[in-house]
């Protein structure tokens, strides 16, 4: 559905039009040329005088590289927002948010996320890192590595996303950024930044500071039924159960800093870099359930209100990384030593209060719950490698890595039923709030499986040979990964001593890049990769009613999933910098982790069971990816740039109910857009349109189909001289709602018989977002 613009939306666009009309001199800026040793000036970053393109990598691996100029004009807030414009990346996030990137549409745990080439810990149980934790202003470039190499860890079944932050050789001078974002509920959030780079002593220094206000005023609407259309064509009238209206507002502030100091000597290079990001966020939900599809009058028994729920969650997350690298060239080649430390802390306090009304006129029931979450995940790593020259432009590289990961989780809860404090049926949901009825909570107790520690130590070695000829670039290698796990659960009377698990994997890989002509080339890669088990699966705790009415028993002896993958691609150069590419990929996944029935009766009695994860499944993933990035100089329009990509994604897996795709994989995703530069008046404008296909999830007790509306973004840019730029950007202009259909069942037998516990239709939207952003170079 296309949303009509409100008055405040029109005001934002009017300001954008005014910027276009303002006079300014034409600008001619030099392109960024890091490859030939030049250093980018701050004016090059602030005043973009040309259209941004996807870069053409000369390495053997199939890598798509996008400089920040490719994204910057649409002013993405986070790394996740920037990735919405690259091929094969989907999200199953809330509207106007982009957190867990799903490369090739697979769940986030199948994608390896690197920051400056190094893994970083996160709070998610599937080992993924949410990319909305990294402000886009810190990014120098984004690399999509479609296949794997022996020089990197093999946790990349879908591929690798590497976020390279700006370093000391990326900037000469500084710039400041200031602006604001205006949301559909008339909330205004600030955005501020400062970056400086220059020579200091024998090397170069870069520092950056960023402050970002975050806001998401979501609205949800749900209709619930006792059955579904597949069983009852008239279910909308015959099977209606209840309706839920929810306001879900998320407010936050992100504070970030990054720094880099580098010395490039004749034989020795040194670099130390790091970043820090803090997210201070508050999420507030208010939900009303009614027994009528449209009515909003007071509580039962005289009205239609069934329940009133208030849920608040305070989130404080901090993640930082320090990395030092020393490289020395000597008679036997080049030796590199890299030492890194990264940590992620997640502290949350959540409270929930609910009033339930009834038809009999009795006093309502009041319930309250309180949870605290404290996750600390830290990693220390050391890498050492050496490159030998073998002659004929061929090198042998050998190396190893040691990593020590320590993850500690503490989830505590207090669950209290309290007497309803006397408002009775005079309760007014428009005036009163369940949170106002709170009584003191009892003692906090550990949630089942909620307090545990996981220590993971890795020792890897690798060797590879790489080389070049006039037309062929190639690489072949093998990586040997060993892992030792110590897992301890501290909850419940049945808490068990520390359990150990060890596994090892050989991961070979090879890539070639062959130049058919100066403009045409083909790429081909084959690699074996793996995916490590989710943390919540390897904890030995027994979780009651975790899978509908069924229980989940963790399995510390789980091994990683493995996959053989193939990528074959073709690229053609268009004009000076344009590229068109086509790639096909295939993954054959073995030892897939699936839930299996132990045969033991569950805690809810007959008809329920205890399930445990096992390495018992197989799957395959395949698709076709097309991307284009070029100006129209061959048509006489050198200042008009077009870009776009489309990916067709598919997979097959067999679970407890038969064949399906991998959970959450969209069947397609595309992004198309254009940028028009008008150098004579220092103006540019453009638009991008994105859409991803439906995704389907099936687990024991629940099936979900998720769809998103299209996303339209428009920008208008005005340049003033060589140092100042203002942009107006509108995003989510089509009010692209998220829609979900839920099939819910009590147990596996009901799921097979299509005996529904509940059928739910849910929609979520947040409205357009407008921003004005100014940059000044100095």
Task: Note the topology.
Blueprint: H1 7-21, H2 42-46, E1 54-56, E2 63-67, H3 68-71, H4 79-83, E3 89-90, E4 102-103, E5 111-115, E6 118-119, E7 139-145, E8 159-165, E9 173-182, E10 188-200, E11 203-225, H5 235-238, E12 240-264, E13 268-290, E14 305-330, E15 333-356, E16 365-389, E17 394-418, E18 445-468, E19 472-489, E20 499-515, E21 520-531, H6 535-538, E22 542-547, E23 550-553, E24 561-574, E25 578-601, E26 609-632, E27 637-655, E28 658-660, E29 668-678, E30 683-692, E31 695-699, E32 702-708, E33 711-720, E34 724-731, E35 738-744, H7 748-753, E36 758-765, E37 769-777
Parallel strand pairs: 5-8, 23-26
Antiparallel strand pairs: 1-2, 2-7, 3-4, 5-6, 7-8, 9-10, 9-37, 10-11, 11-12, 11-36, 12-13, 13-14, 14-15, 15-16, 16-17, 17-18, 18-19, 19-20, 20-21, 21-24, 22-23, 24-25, 25-26, 26-27, 27-28, 27-29, 29-30, 30-33, 31-32, 32-35, 33-34, 34-37, 35-36
Account of the protein in words:
By secondary structure, the protein is mostly beta strands. 6% of the residues lie in helices and 60% in strands. The protein is built from 7 helices and 37 strands. The strands form 3 sheets. The protein has a 22-stranded antiparallel beta barrel. The longest helix has 15 residues, at 7-21. The model is unreliable at 1-36 (pLDDT under 50). Residues 219-260 are annotated as: Disordered. This is TonB-dependent receptor. Residues 290-733 form the TonB-dependent receptor-like beta-barrel domain.
Keywords:
Maltoporin, Chain A, mainly beta, 22-stranded antiparallel beta barrel, globular, 778 residues
């Amino acid at each position: 559905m296309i949303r009509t613009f409100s008055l405040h939306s029109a005001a934002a666009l009017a300001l954008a039009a005014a910027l276009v009309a303002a006079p300014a001199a034409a600008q001619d800026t030099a392109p960024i040329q890091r490859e030939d040793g030049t250093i980018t000036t701050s004016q090059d970053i602030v005043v973009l005088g040309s259209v941004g393109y996807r870069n053409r990598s000369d390495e053997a691996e199939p890598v798509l590289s996008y400089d920040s100029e490719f994204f910057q004009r649409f002013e993405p807030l986070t790394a996740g927002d920037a990735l919405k414009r690259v091929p094969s990346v989907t999200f199953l996030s809330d509207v106007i948010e982009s957190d867990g990137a799903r490369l090739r549409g697979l769940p986030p745990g199948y994608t390896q996320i690197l920051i400056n080439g190094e893994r970083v810990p996160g709070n998610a149980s599937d080992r993924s890192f949410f990319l909305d934790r990294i402000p886009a202003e810190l990014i120098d470039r984004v690399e999509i590595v479609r296949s794997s190499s022996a020089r990197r860890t093999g946790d990349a079944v879908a591929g690798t996303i590497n976020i390279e932050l700006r370093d000391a050789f990326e900037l000469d001078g500084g710039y400041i950024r200031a602006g604001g974002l205006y949301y559909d509920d008339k909330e205004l959030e600030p955005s501020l930044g400062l970056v400086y780079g220059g020579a200091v002593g024998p090397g170069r220094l870069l520092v950056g500071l960023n402050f970002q206000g975050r806001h998401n005023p979501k609205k949800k609407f749900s209709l619930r039924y006792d059955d579904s259309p597949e069983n009852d064509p008239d279910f909308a009238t015959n099977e209606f159960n209840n309706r839920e209206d929810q306001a879900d507002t998320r407010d936050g502030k992100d504070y970030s800093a990054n720094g880099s100091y580098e010395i490039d000597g004749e034989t020795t290079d040194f670099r130390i870099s790091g970043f820090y990001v803090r997210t201070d966020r508050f999420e507030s939900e208010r939900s009303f359930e009614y027994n009528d599809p449209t009515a909003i009058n007071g509580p039962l028994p005289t009205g239609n209100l069934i329940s009133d729920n208030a849920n608040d969650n305070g989130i404080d997350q901090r993640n930082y990384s320090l990395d030092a690298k020393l490289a020395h060239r000597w008679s036997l080649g080049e030796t590199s030593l890299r030492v890194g430390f990264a940590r992620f802390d997640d502290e949350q306090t959540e409270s929930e209060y609910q009033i339930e009304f009834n038809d009999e006129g009795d006093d309502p029931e009041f319930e309250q719950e309180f949870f605290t979450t404290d996750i600390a995940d830290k990693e220390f790593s050391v890498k050492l490698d050496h490159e030998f020259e073998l002659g004929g432009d061929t090198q042998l590289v050998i190396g190893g890595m040691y990593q020590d990961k320590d993850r500690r989780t503490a989830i505590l809860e207090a669950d209290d039923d309290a007497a309803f404090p006397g408002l009775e049926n005079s309760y007014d949901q428009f005036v009163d709030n369940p949170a106002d009825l709170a009584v003191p909570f009892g003692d906090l107790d550990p949630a089942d499986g909620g307090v545990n520690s996981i220590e993971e130590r890795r020792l890897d070695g690798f060797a590879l040979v790489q080389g070049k000829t006039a037309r062929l670039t190639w690489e072949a290698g093998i990586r040997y990964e060993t892992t030792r796990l110590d897992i301890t659960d501290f909850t419940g009377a049945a808490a068990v001593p520390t359990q150990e698990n060890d596994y090892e994997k050989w991961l070979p890989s090879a890539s070639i890049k062959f130049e058919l002509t100066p403009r045409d080339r083909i790429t081909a890669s084959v690699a074996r990769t793996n995916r490590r088990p989710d943390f919540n699966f390897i904890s030995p705790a027994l979780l009651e009613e975790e899978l509908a009415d069924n229980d989940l028993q963790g399995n510390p002896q789980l091994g990683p999933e493995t996959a053989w993958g193939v990528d074959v691609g073709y690229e053609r150069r268009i004009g000076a910098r344009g590229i068109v590419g086509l790639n096909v990929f295939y993954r054959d996944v073995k030892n897939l982790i699936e839930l299996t029935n132990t045969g033991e009766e569950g805690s809810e009695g007959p008809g329920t069971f205890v399930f445990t994860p096992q390495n018992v499944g197989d799957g395959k993933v395949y698709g076709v990816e097309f991307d284009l990035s070029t100006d129209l100089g061959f048509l006489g329009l050198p200042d008009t740039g077009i870009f776009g990509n489309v990916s067709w994604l598919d997979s097959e897996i067999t679970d407890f109910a038969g064949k399906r795709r991998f959970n959450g994989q969209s069947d397609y995703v595309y992004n198309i857009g254009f940028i028009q530069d008008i150098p004579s008046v220092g103006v540019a404008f453009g638009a991008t349109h994105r859409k991803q296909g439906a995704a389907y999830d099936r687990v024991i007790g629940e099936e979900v189909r998720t769809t998103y509306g299209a996303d339209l973004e428009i920008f208008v840019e005005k340049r003033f001289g060589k140092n100042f730029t203002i942009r107006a950007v509108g995003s989510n202009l089509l009010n692209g709602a998220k829609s979900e259909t839920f099939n819910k069942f009590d147990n596996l037998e009901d799921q097979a018989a299509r005996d529904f516990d509940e059928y739910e239709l849910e929609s979520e939207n947040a409205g357009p977002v407008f921003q004005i952003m100014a940059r000044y170079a100095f």
